[in-house]
Amino acid sequence: MGQTIEVSIDNQGGILLPQELKNRLGLSPGMTMLVEEDDQERVCLRVRTESTKLVDKQGVIVVRAEISDDLTNITRRERDYRLSDLLHRADR
């Protein structure tokens, strides 16, 4: 195991890691960390390396994915599709 570093917990429950450690581990905002607790009251914080696509969010399975297009374009295309579908139904 590596070195031991003393950190404190802030008022919001966050732990501030030293910049040197974050740089060495390649940590950046938004990364997912895993917290493991053992039966000897020890906690291990690990970097999550695998990218899980399906995750359980309060009992609902959701897909973790990055948006591959501008959200404005996606919304516009969906709106155009729905409008076209409504107009097509109205012509019947």
Helix and strand topology:
Layout: H1 19-25, E1 33-37, E2 43-47, E3 54-57, E4 60-63, H2 71-90
Characterization of this structure:
Strand 1 and strand 2 form a beta hairpin. The chain has one domain (19-90). The strands form two sheets. A two-stranded antiparallel sheet has the order 1-2. It is built from two helices and four strands. It is an alpha+beta fold and 92 residues long. The relative contact order is 0.07.
Task: Give a short overview.
This protein is an alpha+beta fold and 92 residues long. It has helices at 19-25, 71-90; strands spanning 33-37, 43-47, 54-57, 60-63. It has one domain.
Brief descriptors of the model:
92 residues; alpha+beta; two-stranded antiparallel ribbon; 4 strands
Instruction: Estimate percent helicity.
Output: 25-40%
- Main sheet: which strands, in order across? 1-2
Using only C-alpha atoms, the radius of gyration works out to 22 Å
Alpha-carbon distance between the termini?
71 Å
Main sheet attributes: strand count, strand direction, barrel closure: 2 strands, antiparallel
Overall mean confidence score, pLDDT? 84
Give the domain tally. 1
| Net shape | elongated
Number of helix segments?
Answer: 2
Number of strands: 4
Which percent range describes the beta-strand content?
Answer: 15-25%
